[in-house]
Amino acid sequence: MDKITRIGVIGGGQLAWMLALAAKEMGLSLWVQTPAATDPAVAVADGVCYGAIADGATTAQLAEHVDVITFENEFVDLERLQHLEQQGVCFYPRLATLAPLLNKYQQRRFLQALGIPVPAFTYLGDRPPSFPCVIKACRHGYDGQGTFVITDEQAWQQFQQRWPEIPPQGFLVEAFVPYVKELAIMAARSPQGEIALYPVVETQQVAAICRWVMAPAPIAPQVSEQIQQMARQILTALDGVGIFGIEFFLTATGEVLVNEIAPRTHNSGHYTIDACVTSQFQQHLRAISGQPLGSPDMRVSAAVMVNLLGLAEPQVDYGAKCQALAALPHANLHWYGKSQTYAGRKLGHITVLLEDPAAAMGIIQEIEAIWYSTPVAV
Ligand code: ADP
Predict the structure, then answer these.
(1) What's the predicted TM-score (pTM) here?
(2) How far is CA 150 from the centre of its chain?
(3) Domains of the chain, earliest start first
(4) Are 114 and 101 a contacting pair, CB within 8 Å?
(5) Is 251 close to ligand 1, i.e. is its CB under 6 Å away?
(6) Ligand 1 pocket check for 144: Cβ under 6 Å
(7) 153-174 confidence digits (pLDDT tens)
(8) What distance in Å separates the CA atoms of residue 193 and residue 100, rounded to the nearest whole number?
(9) Which residues cross the membrane (predicted)?
(10) Please, what is the Cα angle at 261 between 214 and 126, to 5 degrees?
(11) At residue 378, does pLDDT exceed 50?
(12) What is the per-residue pLDDT across 41-68, written as a single tens digit (0 to 9) for each?
């Protein structure tokens, strides 16, 4: 294949923005497909095709400007893209890799067939599920949108009131996992099957949105090895090309279950920009442009990443908070430049590099005290 130097991304949010910054450093050009001129990646992309994420006609236009097309999110119209692939458009990851992943129910089935542990699950039908359980929209869920923890009859009634009819894509219902930690790994694979695994990290979600990430996770080496082994198995079975984020639950008995595979760059890998030899964004671009993978090793002994989410209180002085955060030792602030700042929106993140892993939780609390009026109880 000819040298790949022109990258197309379906999506224009902060992941595409960070991918575009990495592309610039690597001398690659990057175009995005996005509906809104105010999206972060528009300001740094080499070109933009305006259109909805699932609009195949816009992707056809994008294909005229680039050598390979990749994805910022899972909300694409796979059938429309398959026509383009048949006409010779190159997608990485391949569409056959995405096919079992886009629908959460099918993703669970795929993992189950590989013998990888997942929470017990089924389609939501007419009968009430047993509590506690978690109901998830099979498609188009993100940051907890489309995820409902149902603890009791009252929560079930509320869910039914909100969704008197089940939408065509359906809901998945699964057992609530009483996990002790949520873990994640970034894993990259080249078209030749070379794999690079980043360290396993611990993540904390608040209201189903990632709040912080601790790298590496404070876990037993055998748990880490088990997760790395699962990541290898999953990427190989998918014939995946590019970077993948995989999320896990760790239970009190040491059992590891996969929660979700994201076939793209991922929030739990943002720490890699400042803390690793090769960032997840550079690694993804290396993989999809046919360059050898870079080292996923950490350059420091530990790091923490905290998401800076939009706050509910009115008139927040985000500038003053950013200044206070940037003044922390070994802090790297990333501000996405979003034009609207509603509550819960991912506005930026901060990564602090640490010499002593034992200092991680203290730093997270320090950052939370600056940014959030109500720090998370840990
Ligand atoms: P999204 O795709 O919106 O990120 P997830 O399926 O990853 O949705 O769920 C978001 C969060 O909800 C998880 O990170 C976890 O904190 C919680 N959660 C999801 N599924 C379960 C489950 N089966 N048991 C317990 N908590 C869950």
Answers:
(1) 0.97
(2) 24
(3) 6-91 (3.40.50.20), 120-175 (3.30.1490), 179-371 (3.30.470.20)
(4) no
(5) no
(6) yes
(7) 999 999 999 998 888 889 999 9
(8) 19
(9) none
(10) 120
(11) no
(12) 999 999 999 999 999 999 999 999 999 9
